[in-house]
Amino acid sequence: MGWTFQNSANAAEYILSSLTNGVNYQVQIAAVNALGVGQWTASAAGRPLAAPGVPRQLQAAATDGALLAMWMPPADGGGAADGELTYSVRWRAAADANYDSDDAAETAGGAVSYRIASLTNGTTYAVQVRAQFTGGMSDWSAEAQGAPVAFHIDLDADSDADWIDGVVVTRYLLGLRGADLTADLSGLDADDATRITAHLDANRSALDVDASGAVTPADGILIARHLMDVTDNAELLDGQTAATDADAVKAAIDALKP
Ligand SMILES: [Ca+2]
Ligand SMILES: [Ca+2]
Fold first, then answer.
1. Nearest ligand atom owner, CA of 157
2. For residue 166, which of 2, 44, 95, 148 sits 20 to 30 Å off, Cα-Cα?
3. Would you say residue 73 has pLDDT above 90?
4. Which CATH code of 3.40.50, 2.60.40, 2.20.20, 3.30.950 fits the domain covering 1-48?
């Protein structure tokens, strides 16, 4: 795009309007008199910014003593580039009328999840998030609620979440029950299958690691891949459609480890 010319008359300032938020513009000035136009200055650069929109699809996933807040960036970042928005998260016990300013945190670098720790199992909490950037901050999002529970996916109880646990979760989400749930997995038998099924039934919502709003075999595939140490983000999400990005998926799964 070429230069646009404006005459400021005698004023030593001029407001450039009708610009596009987030686009970098360069500005030069030159003095004009009856003999002509003087030399142009060096360029000064800037970009117009507005307050970002409200973050979307906030969820509060329950884990042991913690909630994992996850959300989508606002539809309109106000001109912020990817990764430039920061987010504030705040939470309160649902029974409390107001938020306490101490119960809040900020994320940086565009991170769209935050683990709220040191919560009480069995207490329902309300969570909100807002976006902020140089141009201002959004309103608080709609509330999400969650109640931390003593839940983890170390299903074979060896104090580690590894590939066997990932296989069991995937089978569970595929609908396998009883001996089919634990078949051919060392250290697990049909009695374990009953225990594991009850454990997962009670915390099924916590398995929505792709933040799709539903718990499906796709969540199991992501859990199994992550627990098999598939570290490459593209490989982790290959063939899957996650509502959040790979880092948020991994954070959600890590939050399920014992
Ligand atoms: Ca395990
Ligand atoms: Ca899901």
1. 1
2. 148
3. yes
4. 2.60.40
